[in-house]
Amino acid sequence: RILSANEIRRHFIDYFKSTDHNYIRSSPVRPFSDPTLEFVNAGMNQFKNVFLGLRKPPALRATNSQKCIRIGGKHNDLDVVGHDTYHHTFFEMLGNWSFGNYFKKEACEMAWKLITLPPYSLPAEKLYVTYFGGDAKLGLEPDLETRDIWRSIGVSPERILPFGLKENFWEMGLTGPCGPCTEIHYDHAGTALRPHLVNKDQSDLTELWNIVFIQYNREEDGNLTSLQQHFVDTGMGFERLVAILHGKSSNYDSDLFSPLFGEIEKICKIQAYRGKFGAEDELGLDTNYRILADHARMATVAIADNIFPYQSNGLRRVVRKTFRVADSLLPGKSLKLVTALSKAVRSSLESAYPEIGNNGKQVDCVLQDEHQLWMQISSSTKKDWNSLVMKDGNLEKLADVVSPGLIAALKELEKSNFPDGRISDDLALTLYDRYGIDVPLIEELATIKGASVDVRSVEKRIGEMKSANKKALNDSAALLTAQYSIRDSVRLPPTDDSPKYEYVRSENG
Ligand code: ATP
Ligand code: MG
Ligand code: MG
Ligand code: MG
After folding, report:
1. Given 64, 105, 115, 374, which is the most exposed site by the fewest CB atoms within 10 A?
2. Domain 5-245: top CATH class
């Protein structure tokens, strides 16, 4: 019998409850009080201060399923979403934690049992495990202990692979708790040995579960300091697990997404989702299906957790794109489509996360407001661009709902007189980079101004800029790496007046 997504989630939680883990609810996707993060990007975020020794652990062992969003910062998957089978903007991370209780051996043993025994029953011949291969420059030893643990569990040696810092040293962001990790990967294609394809962005050989041994904190100056205690922090991608257990190699073919696709097909009366990617998806229809379903999930979850587009450029970007894609499938009726999708998202997730159902009204209202604004900007400004900007009042009056970036961008555009009837690549790049205006909106603005814009060339420039930024980041990381020193830190134990943790424990996990 095939387990439903809800049963799969429940079994994970029940398994860890049966091994003395306390169930702890997902925190909201808005971090409690962490200026280093815009969205919660992993299950461990809500325990950050426990790892740092600033708070008492909520229990010795914990388990949960955490709502996560990865559209910015160190973990940014926005650009690949819709184009591959296994990254989403919003996803659920199943996790278990040891707060100074068990360590490597128990963590690996419990994980292996869970996934290879019924009801999950993943075949060992389709699994690989990775471990940290060390880093000479940093003076970090290879984690042979973990390698040997996997051997003792019975994993065949050709399926136990070492990787470096990038793959097997997990960090939540530029700062924060971190450590070497060991991961479990799954080969959708079959049982043939293909170790060279692990961690190579293959859509049929993907990472499933990351088990991190939190031992360090990355400080603001880039140094690693040792934590007083050692912790286990694991995260398994729920949508990836569901796809595997449904016998599908794409997350989008599982019952988490098919109801959403059904809704799109029904409302738009268009061709059904066929699961094509890249060049095989000639018109980009399947990609649009995926983006729309993914983004509707992200927007619904974020707004239900009290994140609003006017406060979050990231959310606004995603919501606008949702409307734009919806409008391309069902011209003039994007709100109807997105609202229907959001309702379908709620009914699929509310049993696990009641707040998503309870705040449905809020989600509808915010989507409606944001839609109105989007329409105003992209269509009514078309009619009356000059009065809007020149009167200087209209947009400022909307200042609390229009992003300051857009107002500034409109002014920037207003200043330019487009000598050759086109918006130069430089100006477009400024609009994109400084003011956060997407290329399609730049195109719309250009149309309004009766000017043209060379979309291809602008996109190329954006690509170049992104890789230059990435390189700069890598260079500075390399520089930091060269300077890392691992020094012991002395941390104060929590005192009586340390803030009490606000975890909500619940029995209905
Ligand atoms: P990947 O290498 O596939 O991008 P990751 O190494 O960035 O994954 P981790 O930070 O180790 O991911 O997070 C733990 C688990 O969460 C992963 O093993 C994966 O199953 C899942 N996961 C990570 N990012 C996403 C995403 N964008 N969408 C869905 N699941 C994800
Ligand atoms: Mg990733
Ligand atoms: Mg990875
Ligand atoms: Mg990983």
Report:
1. 105
2. alpha beta
